[in-house]
Amino acid sequence: MAIAVCPGSFDPVTLGHVDVVTRAAALFDEVVVAVAVNPSKQGLFTVDERRELLATALEGVPNVRTDAFEGLVVDYCRAIGAATLVKGLRSSVDFGFEEPMAQMNRHQTGVDSTFLITDPRWSYVSSSLVKEVARGGGDVSAFLHPEVHRRLCERIG
């Protein structure tokens, strides 16, 4: 069974994330959306809340589950038997950042990376930008699952 891991912070999960994970689910037997736990960073949502929001946004995609990991993502991949990481690329800037990591991951553990080019509708969307616009009072509902949007507005106040 081919297992892939889509790692990220997902704080919050956007429709761009949903698009990449849904497309990955068509390519692999199982996709694990793995929320990175970084004790030195304070997210807007807790890791458990992010997993819950991911599950809501990905409801109906049968071969996707959520999890959380701490440490190196390739160690997590080995622990669950995943041979592939899936990353969405919005631009060549993302590729420039991801390519050396993909090479290092493969060298260290043999875990390969699959890059999916982001749908143009979401190419400028990031969790950070969504939070910034929402904090400024802008409407970000077009970029989020309705429940994620509701929770974001509730959290930001």
From TrEMBL:
<protein>
    <recommendedName>
        <fullName>Phosphopantetheine adenylyltransferase</fullName>
        <ecNumber>2.7.7.3</ecNumber>
    </recommendedName>
</protein>
<feature type="site" description="Transition state stabilizer">
    <location>
        <position position="17"/>
    </location>
</feature>
<comment type="subunit">
    <text>Homohexamer.</text>
</comment>
<dbReference type="InterPro" id="IPR001980">
    <property type="entry name" value="PPAT"/>
</dbReference>
<keyword id="KW-0548">Nucleotidyltransferase</keyword>
<comment type="function">
    <text>Reversibly transfers an adenylyl group from ATP to 4'-phosphopantetheine, yielding dephospho-CoA (dPCoA) and pyrophosphate.</text>
</comment>
<keyword id="KW-0173">Coenzyme A biosynthesis</keyword>
<feature type="binding site">
    <location>
        <begin position="122"/>
        <end position="128"/>
    </location>
    <ligand>
        <name>ATP</name>
    </ligand>
</feature>
<feature type="binding site">
    <location>
        <position position="87"/>
    </location>
    <ligand>
        <name>substrate</name>
    </ligand>
</feature>
<keyword id="KW-0547">Nucleotide-binding</keyword>
<keyword id="KW-0963">Cytoplasm</keyword>
<feature type="domain" description="Cytidyltransferase-like">
    <location>
        <begin position="5"/>
        <end position="132"/>
    </location>
</feature>
<comment type="similarity">
    <text>Belongs to the bacterial CoaD family.</text>
</comment>
<dbReference type="GO" id="GO:0004595">
    <property type="term" value="F:pantetheine-phosphate adenylyltransferase activity"/>
</dbReference>
<feature type="binding site">
    <location>
        <position position="17"/>
    </location>
    <ligand>
        <name>ATP</name>
    </ligand>
</feature>
<keyword id="KW-0067">ATP-binding</keyword>
<comment type="pathway">
    <text>Cofactor biosynthesis; coenzyme A biosynthesis; CoA from (R)-pantothenate: step 4/5.</text>
</comment>
<feature type="binding site">
    <location>
        <position position="9"/>
    </location>
    <ligand>
        <name>substrate</name>
    </ligand>
</feature>
<feature type="binding site">
    <location>
        <position position="98"/>
    </location>
    <ligand>
        <name>ATP</name>
    </ligand>
</feature>
<dbReference type="InterPro" id="IPR004821">
    <property type="entry name" value="Cyt_trans-like"/>
</dbReference>
<feature type="binding site">
    <location>
        <position position="41"/>
    </location>
    <ligand>
        <name>substrate</name>
    </ligand>
</feature>
<dbReference type="Pfam" id="PF01467">
    <property type="entry name" value="CTP_transf_like"/>
</dbReference>
<feature type="binding site">
    <location>
        <begin position="88"/>
        <end position="90"/>
    </location>
    <ligand>
        <name>ATP</name>
    </ligand>
</feature>
<feature type="binding site">
    <location>
        <begin position="9"/>
        <end position="10"/>
    </location>
    <ligand>
        <name>ATP</name>
    </ligand>
</feature>
<dbReference type="InterPro" id="IPR014729">
    <property type="entry name" value="Rossmann-like_a/b/a_fold"/>
</dbReference>
<keyword id="KW-0808">Transferase</keyword>
<feature type="binding site">
    <location>
        <position position="73"/>
    </location>
    <ligand>
        <name>substrate</name>
    </ligand>
</feature>
<keyword id="KW-0460">Magnesium</keyword>
